[in-house]
Amino acid sequence: MAIIRIAIALYFWLFTLSIIHNCMFCSGNNSSVISCIETERQALLSLKQDLYDPSNRLASWVGEDCCKWSGIICHNITGHVRKLILRSPPPPPYVESFAEFEAYKKTLLGGKISPALLNLKHLHHLDLSNNDFGGNRIPKFLGSLASLRYLNLSQARFDGMVPCQIGNLTNLRTLDLHDVTTFNGYAMNIQWISHLSLLRYLDLSDVELHHASDWMEVTNSLPSLVVLRLSYCNLSFNSIPPIHHINFSSLAILDLSDNYYYLEYNIPSIPKSLYELSRLEFLNLQGNQLSGTISSDIKNLTSIKSLDLSSNELEGKLPPVGTQLCKLKEIHLSGNIWNQSISQVLDSLCGCVSDGLEVLDMYSNNLFGRLDRSQIWKFKALTEIYLSRNSISGHIPASLGNVSSLRYVDLSHNHFDGSLPESFGQLTKLEGLYISNNYLEGTISEAHFANTTKLRVLYASDNQLTLDLSPNWIPPFQLEGLSLWSWNLGPQFPLWLRSQEHLTFLDISKIRNDAIVVPSWFWNFSAQLTFLNLSHSHFQGRIPYISKIGNYSLEIDLSYNHFEGPLPCISSKVIGIDLSNNNFSGSISHFLCNKPKELMDLQSLTLANNQLSGQLPDCWSKWLNLNIINLSSNKFSGNIPSSMGSLISLNSLHLRNNNLSGEFPMSLQNCTELVALDIGENNLRGSIPGWIGSRLLKMRIISLRFNEFYGHLPDQLCALSSLQILDVSYNNLSGRIPRCFNNFSVMAQTSDYYTYGFSYTFGHHMAFMEDLLLVMKGRAEEYNTILGLVKSMDLSSNHLSGHIPSEMTSLSGLISLNLSNNLLVGEIPNQIGEMKALLSLDFSLNLLSGEIPQSMSTMSFLSHLNLSYNNLTGMIPLGTQLQSFTATSFIGNNLCGPPLTPNCNTSGGTVEKKNIEDDDCGLSWPWFYIGMGVGFAAGFWGVCWALIFNKTWRYTYFRFLDDMTDKIYVVIAIKVKKTL
């Protein structure tokens, strides 16, 4: 027995000596002792061979010792590969350009995962996150890496089903598959997760789990689980089991946010079982449209530190929890339907909660009442308070300025009145102050900013505040964002802005001052900005070169001011510029062509309503990023340059109301992304090309009005199924209306195909909204905010002939149809009443005959109708709609009945129009006699009798008069609009 004891002691002594020996070698020169296993080195080389590595991140994977390779961590004694970390950096928060996006993509690994990975039998840690595996499936063989304790494939852009073989990794402590796929990641069931009994961290966010109705039961079986994240998974909350099945013993973080599985009939409320998770420190249920009230059982969450119930449909009142949830640091309840005053909310949180609460988020909650009558002063630990978009009224309490820990205060979009308390100037930790869209008034002085040395963002727009600062005042802060639109900035441009070296966002638009001159130094100062808005003010002066130095793009809105002189040159970093509605003059050649070899980032160019002149230069090929061009209402002349055809990304082109000439440019057929084309009110001529219908298939708006186009309307236009507005009025078009116009499928939709206006966004702050001049209900008006609802066709004032195609009546979504002042013959289609969405219908000044179809009496939305000066006969159909119009809608026909006459005679004929027709020649319009020389009787009767007996002359003459009247009206309207 003693011998056995001696042998055991000797064994342990030798073992200890061996360990000490190894440790001495390890501490002396680790690299000289540790060397990777050859089979594992070969496995890694096979892995490298199958990976796509555009930035050569794996350049170090050469040589014999793989333990020195980048991303490889070996065991310090055995040399086995223990960790393989090939994660890429996360994407930048803002990708400013295509080039920047491409540069980021080159940092990502791709390709496929080699099965040789299975030879790393001692691998504990595998991280392939933030890469781009191009939609390949997650390899099933990963489930054979039995030693894995950590697996992270998040944001790796795999695709398809998450393999259940991962359930074989019974040693896993961490499994992170959040956003693991591009679009189609899913799991039919998650029973395999129940095998991972050692799991402490599980994140399946963005994996489709709506088929996994047992998700709570499965995750509940993991006794060691501390963190569970299942956001954006389409989970069913109605399937959560009863309370006695909840036995999470370690769960501290539960994120079930943004799940939208609502094929169920009953919109769920907060599951009662969640109130029993007494060890929870973090609970996130935001964005699930949960209904009902918050149960008083919420007081059982005694360990809770962060509670997020925002963006649901919760209502009622917040239960009093101020004395129970003593560890609560953050509460997010925004975006619900509370029926409480702000005082009641704060009262329910008073107690130990108010002593430690740091974040109070009640954004957009229908809260009311007065904040100055609440106990806000008791919340001494508050660092962030968000009460935006409520109906809170009264003064902003001065006591809020005494909560010295405040870093962010958002009181915007409420009904606060009075002025901003000077006590806010003592908030030494304040970084963001948001008080926009209130009824604040009074003066803001230097005292309001006395000790705000950390202030970074000040958004105070849409108030009636006045800035009263010394011209030599130097702010104690360095702002990054400033928005003061609708303020009174004082008698001169704010000089203190010059000291703000980090300002990137500046909005001082719609100011209430008159005639402020922008100093020249400001345009150099603007080099640091990413957004500049001085629009809708009375700023004056000339603008020099707008430079841009930095890594981010610049968006500029200087519209609706009094800037003058030539256009400023801009740097290549400007992505959007709006200089419309100013007094800029001269050519734009220097603006467009001054840097012929430099490609520009500009996406939106708006120069409408200025005094710019000369020809459009032919150097558009360097502006390849342009999506929007608006040069309307200037004095440009000459042809549309062919280089515009190089703008293959162009969505919107507006050249209306200039003096452009020539034919429709052939090069525009390359602009296949065009959605809106407005070249009306110019001197363009030639035929309308058929390739518009075969090449520009995304067109929604075509306006060619007031030009000199001739020929037929091409049948190829019928391929434009998305077309919602077609205006070719006041041209010289002839021939028949194509029967295939019924192929305009958007015009045939009675539902709102596009809601409100349609716009194009670019950058982070600006958007371009389409606007268009349309004649509807007999009036010319500009449409923008509701343009998306407009479906209109205007073919008026041409030489179109033939019948009105009955197929057009299938365009039941049209709200305006104008075929007036043409040579159309035949009857009005009987099915016209099917166009029930019509608000405006004009068939006047044609050669139409027959009776008015009875179906027109059912067009209940019709508010403008003009059938005058045709050959229509018979009785006007009875109904509340047609009788609501005046006689002018029907004059110049052989019609009877209300509103022309009380009734028709018994024989069915028409009554004589004594008040309408002249007894001698059938003509009594005042404008007819204006054209005749008073006293020249012979000439008068000669013309009169010629018009009576020659039908063609008669219609031609009245068309001429109507053309002249309409053109004079439009010209006057345009001149008045320019003047205003």
TrEMBL record:
The chain crosses the membrane at residues 927-949. It is a single-pass type I membrane protein. Gene3D superfamilies: Ribonuclease Inhibitor. Residues 1-18 form the signal peptide. The keyword Membrane applies. One of its GO terms (cellular component) is plasma membrane. Keywords: Cell membrane, Glycoprotein, Leucine-rich repeat, Membrane, Receptor, Repeat, Signal, Transmembrane, Transmembrane helix. It is found in: Cell membrane. It holds the Pfam family LRR_1. Residues 38-74 form the Leucine-rich repeat-containing N-terminal plant-type domain. Belongs to the RLP family. This is Leucine-rich repeat-containing N-terminal plant-type domain-containing protein. The lineage of its organism: Eukaryota, Viridiplantae, Streptophyta, Embryophyta, Tracheophyta.
